[in-house]
Please model this.
Amino acid sequence: MNQSDFVAELSWRGMVHQTTEGLAAHMATLGRVAYAGFDPTADSLTVGNLVSAMLLARLQRCGHKPIVVMGGATGLIGDPSGKSSERQLLDPAQVKKNVAGQRKIFEKLLDFTGPNAAVIVDNAEWLLKMGYIEVLRDIGKHFSVNQMVTRDSVANRLESREQGLSYTEFSYMILQAYDFAHLFKAHGCTVQMGGSDQYGNILSGIDLIRRLSQGEGFGLTAPLLLKSDGTKFGKSESGNVWLSAERTSPYRFHQFWLNASDEEVGKLLRWFTFFDRATIEALEAAQKANPSERAAQKALADAATEMIHGAAEVARAKSAALALFSGDIRALDAALLDEVTHDLTSTVIAASALDGDGVALLEFLATTPLAASKREARDFLAAGAVSVNGEKAVTDAKLTRKDVLHGAVILLRRGKKQWHALRVGN
RNA sequence: GGGCGGUUACUCAAGCGGUCAACGAGGGCAGACUGUAAAUCUGCUGGCUUAGCCUUCGGAGGUUCGAAUCCCCCACCGCCCA
Model:
């Protein structure tokens, strides 16, 4: 495996925002242990979380040992960093379930065998055992409130009158600092990584390690990932892009990357693929020379989808896209049709309803997610935005048995990308 | 406790007795153009059995032939005085 210098590797990929002094020299020795934390606020991770996950994956490929820290305990509280308002508290059963869901994703990104096997730990293991008095006595005394209130994440919330900051949230940084100190002792972990909003928390941890163990810790943060238009990365028309197939299908996942803009595709390749520098630069050059080919976007979509969902799902996503966008839907064979419709929202209709004159498309559209009301359905039909099995539909179109493909399904489309399957029941 | 100003559709924001389903901007959606892009242009953006009808302008009453617009009460927000 390639054991290139970790810090240099991240640098050329543009994934380094800040590091503490001496990190590069520290990482020159192989076998270092580093961690990144994840809040179990959902049973899956989003592409936003993928930034930190990739830091760990690259770390391991550079010959170091990654630790994933699930915030099973801190997730009960919520990090105030970057949040404008108080977090909802999660209940313990939910957190447990979420931790299990996220664990599955890390198993795809990290190698859990070998000398630098990745480890997943849950900070509930050590934080829940601690008593309040113990925390105040052993940890709290090492923190200066004077210093804590000057942290941006805290100061912003103190200034805003409406929001305020609860004592609970205020204490979050103490707990996160303790995580680092605990991992230092228990796992020899010397490095913490995260997004740029975590820098303050990381420094607190390094400080605590010095006080509790007279040891030296290091930190590294990645820049915040924003889209070129300044909006938050990782949202698509249909909401957040998740890393589990149950929440975001591999097809949609693949489409998400494929739709990356020309300006940001180079950056995304650097961040989210393991392609080497020469490969990425060649892809960028190809993209620039012939934009409509979208060579860079295609390579990005395939690589990212393969990493998360596997090669088989890449092939499925591509054949589905080919069929849906080529428009020649009637030509699909039954098996491929099934593949294509697998991910789509669907409605079941009785076969008998399609007999004779059939059902008015206008009526039916309003019952699907494609149109919110009959009024809207009428607008879409009038604008020529709706197609049945890839062919544009007229306003008074009827759906009949003739429209059913392979005796099973009718494919409706609104606009360019909104699809809906109409499945025929008995 | 007292005085003043506000509360309008997804957001901001006009309207100040009929011509108001409500100007405008943003956002969203659709069409054309394209590369399943960006930019641009056009249309739509409460609902319906759509030349019309129905339900909306913080909540409840009232005045009027007629109210988002006037009056009264209530709730919430902002500013000023104590």
User: Anything to note?
Assistant: The domain at 6-222 of chain A is CATH 3.40.50.620 (Rossmann fold). Chain A has three domains: 6-222, 235-326, 329-425.
